[in-house]
């Protein structure tokens, strides 16, 4: 497998990224995600989100989700996902009021989006904090094609 770096991530697909997260020790991921390369990795992950969006499953969903990723060299990073009119857009400069805001560290985020961690268990143990429409949080996985690695 490849090394956990922004360059590696840019060169592999979602399924390979899922396998990379699952096979990389948590300490290595935490180290990389606390470094200056963190923003490149998060940008790559969030830029892929619209391509993994399952419009046919969205129905009439119209929502704004803020992903607050803590523990970076400059504090936290916030990304905004907007789902409306069967489309998904993402920005690293949130401008809308969220229906749901989820706060977690980068390791928890990567484990959640790759299926390497159980989101409900991470929420119950306080690793994911959520404010707003909690039922929306449980439906996020069905709106995206999350690769099984």
Automatic annotation (TrEMBL):
<dbReference type="InterPro" id="IPR036527">
    <property type="entry name" value="SCP2_sterol-bd_dom_sf"/>
</dbReference>
<dbReference type="InterPro" id="IPR003033">
    <property type="entry name" value="SCP2_sterol-bd_dom"/>
</dbReference>
<dbReference type="Pfam" id="PF02036">
    <property type="entry name" value="SCP2"/>
</dbReference>
<feature type="domain" description="SCP2">
    <location>
        <begin position="57"/>
        <end position="145"/>
    </location>
</feature>
<protein>
    <submittedName>
        <fullName>SCP2 sterol-binding domain-containing protein</fullName>
    </submittedName>
</protein>
